[in-house]
Protein 1
Amino acid sequence: MVGTKIAIDGPSGAGKSTISEIVAHKIGFTHIDTGATYRVIAYAISRFNVNLKNEKEIRFLLDSINIDIKFLEGKQFIYLNCEDVTDELRSPKISSLSSYISKFPFVRKKLTHMQRKIAEDKNVIMDGRDIGTKVFKNADLKIFLTASLDERAKRRYEELEKKEIKTNFEYVRKSMKERDTNDSKRSLSPLKPATDALIIDTTGNTLEKSVDTILKIVRDKLSELINNKK
């Protein structure tokens, strides 16, 4: 495993992607948001009207589309068939759909391979739901971020409002609760903390406080790794 790997897992709205992106920028690492790789497939399924009950159609879609990830000025952009669809992937509908398709072994196999390939020669902070338990079991540092359902739903609702995506708080909360259930109870790579992960609850924290907390943990770990190599 070339490069330092930091895994940050947790449920929707816990702040994984935002915190990971900021911390990665501060320490000069690449941030990889693996949730976006599932969302882009969900987006393609919705866009091309693929029948979710027909596994052959989903397999055909996976073989037919081209997914590309680019990093520009420290930010991750997702391309579907050469089109930047990054801003289309955060709606509750796409989030729920991505949770549904993540239960298919062939989807997870394809994306796990993609995620490892992208990160193999980099120092990365990779966030998702099974990074520490599946994608990088031997990550140098594993963190599991969480927060109360109400707080996570509030954050996601405010995020969607800023992007002028029409929705309401109760719908966002209901969708998030359903996704929590689906993600934690699926038989394949369920959402759960790795046995050696640090569990950080961000309920009540400002973004700045959460970033400071994670940044200190990460810097302490990097210092430890450097000292161990001396």
Protein 2
Amino acid sequence: MASTRVGGIGRLVCAAAAALGGAAAAAQDQNPAPGGRDALVDLKPAAGAPAAEKPVSFSGFYDFLGAYTYSDPSHWSNAVNRFQLSAQGKAGEGLKWKIGGRVDGDIVYGSSDFYLPDVRNDQKWSAFWRETYVDFSAAGWDFRLGAQNIVWGEVVGFFVADVVSAKDLREFLLPSFDVIRAPQWAARAEYFKGDSHLELVWIPFQTFDDVGKPGSDFYPVRLPSPTPGSVAAGFLDPEKPSQNLGNSAYGVRANTLVGGWDLAAFYYRSHSNSPTFYRVPSTIPGLPFLVQPRYDRIWQIGGTVSKDFGPAVGRAELVYSDGRSFASTDPVAPQGALRKDTLDWVVGADFVLPRDVKLNVQAFQRIYSGGEDTLAVQYGSFGVSGMISGKVTPTVEPQLLWIQTFGGGGGLIRPRVNWTPVRNTTVGVGVDIFTGPDDGVFGRYNNRDRVYTEVRYDF
């Protein structure tokens, strides 16, 4: 594979999610959500007797985020309430189950006329399945059937090797992982022996990334803000593959522990979770062509490694992808896109410093076959990220995330302060600052800088 220029991490994965999530990510670090609360009954065992196992447990969270975009044109960009509830339990011997859902409602999109009607209808309220599955074992294998998060990555805050998960990208990578991830309806089989593990995955009908509607703040193509309807009319809804078994996704992953090194390798065949924007003929007067998002058929191989070195935990991921095309500014590119194989890698380390200061540093890169000079979105030649946080009091924790690409991708700076007034509750105040050229992976949002506050309660 020829390689010239390089770009930022595949699929906009920069450590954005390490703190890109804002409150929820911080809440998970400070107050890990419990596995669930007893809900149906409150059995209190007699003194000295073992605690009775509850038939059903519940868990979830409530999250409010209010955001004001102060870049010109300034406007309220979020006032979203999220409520997620999951229940889990057992059904007889050897069968476990879980069911979950989330509802989002955003006052801004329900009342403001800043956004186009299609954007408002798409984001004023949403309802989602969350993880909903059954677990059972047979012939030495563990099986999970249903909607589930399949996480193959090891690096904290990155999506490089997390190739199976679909994502809700309507707010880019700013929310926490448990908000961004969209479960896949899949069948998964796992086999464990000693320190080794084999995993088989089959997804009959894929779930794809939700990129929103043209005119939304974080649509993947940079558009004027606010976006005129005449401009948005040039963008069609994503064209998803037909739902047949020939379009199903499947993969295999194996990992083992050798001398303290956790090593894993995988192969995954699917359609790309993220769409490619193709040019197609137009029948609309005044528009020479339309833009059609489509999902390319691809295959990926990759590996991960992690090891605890005592003062630091090191992690790395490497993924090669074949079959995807990328929108191009080359006037002779077929349908405005060029097929490019990619090689993504990321290396990072986590440190716990004196006074409970946490530090994460990472380096990342994407290598395109044939270079990326004419691609519509530039990832830059190389990237680094750093996140540091530490408590100044038992309940107040400032943190700073800085992601920077070199060579045109731009960057993201996220200072934030978290306050934990009571257990499982986090109040955060922060700023999201995008930098870089208009065609950079971060720079395309350089007029989306915002201040925000977030309140989250986990139960």
Protein 3
Amino acid sequence: MKKLVLIFWLLFNLVAYAQQPNIVFLMTDDQRWDNFGCYGRPEFKTENIDRLAKEGVIFDRAYYPVAICMPSRATIMSGRYLSNHRVGFSYPNNLTFSKADFKDTYPARLKKSGYRTGFVGKFGFPVTNKAYHAKGGVSGYDLQENLGEYFDFFTGRGVHFRGAFKMWPEDATLKEIYDVDRPQNERTLKTGDAMIHFLNTQPKDEPFCLSVSFYAVKNDKDRDMYPPHVKEFENQNFSVPENWVEGKNTKLPKLLDNWRGVPLHIKRTSTPELYQKLVRRFATQGYTVDQQVGRLVDKLEKMEILDNTIIIYTSDNGRFHGSQGLYDKAILYEESIKAPLIVFDGRRAKEKRGYREKAFISSVDIAPTILSFVGIEKPQKMQGNSFIGILDKTQNMENWQKSVYSESLFISNLHSKRKYPDFEIANQDIIKANKSYRSRGVRNDKYKYIIYYEHNPAIEELYDLENDPYEMNNLVNDKQYTKVVTKLRKETKNTYQRIQQN
């Protein structure tokens, strides 16, 4: 009798595993939301991603709660806001991510539930035994020692915290993919090759969750451009957004002169020639990523598992490219905080796919949604909301979030311990000198509100995005918007207090 019960239990679990969907989470680095055909700019040649969008759901109001690499990646994996997990670059929000907290991330939870977990590419934040202030970075970090229990398959490096490249389980194929003689300009092809190798080594009767974090499209040096793809754009002139500014933008808050994005714009994107040069390079890298997406879908089809696989595509933050007279990211204008987000679910009938969604989504919502796909209840620490009800159209939209919250806590001058041995003193000096550009704000159906809360007096911005989508006319001092400013100021403060204490 016991033997029969055991056999039944094994068969039950085998069927359950077979029915569990596979998850592929694709994330690029610094890829602006409108650099895709499916988001209105076909000049970027993203046909494979566009096809994924056409056969899935494309979100038109997806946003980052923080728009810079390390904290954004921690937020996406954990479903927690920066002011809550405090894993970032700048003191006092420069904690490492504790293992106790990492156990509540989506890959750790899926592994615990029986999924084979894989990670390929850029792992952007340090996970340590206990959280501590990483003043001056993390030294001697071993990725396998700290992450080995959460990932069955890993090939990547710990960018931003001195985590040297590691792969496991190490085999001949991975050694060939990451051969030291293979050129840097094939970095995205290496990521694609490792992604396919994960699938080639996938057991048939086991569900998997593969997270692929491309190094592209962040860098713009010749060494990062795959030569055959450079030719796709070498003679192309790209359209120029309405809020691109030649030279310095005198309409920005003077406070932003302290942000590195102002001098970087002057140096890199402030003339038509510089703008076109840089956009061609980002388009080239985006095209190379797009080819890997095509390889992924083809492989899943050949394995006959595409119809049981969910693919999520996004980036870690946006980029200004000269819009607003800025380069880089982090500051809370649309080019920085608006996200590309595409969700393809092969399990859905074709007639229920292929549409655009206007619901507000924050990248803090991604982790709880991934857990929802496999029936795992979100951990108490997760602050985001699963949007699975929006995908299957069962969500009562009256009860769904009507706005998204974002914050920028990065101070570039607090990034170097060599320059400031005592971060606490330096932080207070920056605040007292009115040079802090830390900000927070909300974006709803019509308005965007931003407050630089450490400036004395506080600097505020208000934009009517319905009539001014490029945020070129600050309405904060217009008396007819006083009630709007008061309401959004209160919402911003209340949201911050809630996420900090939760």
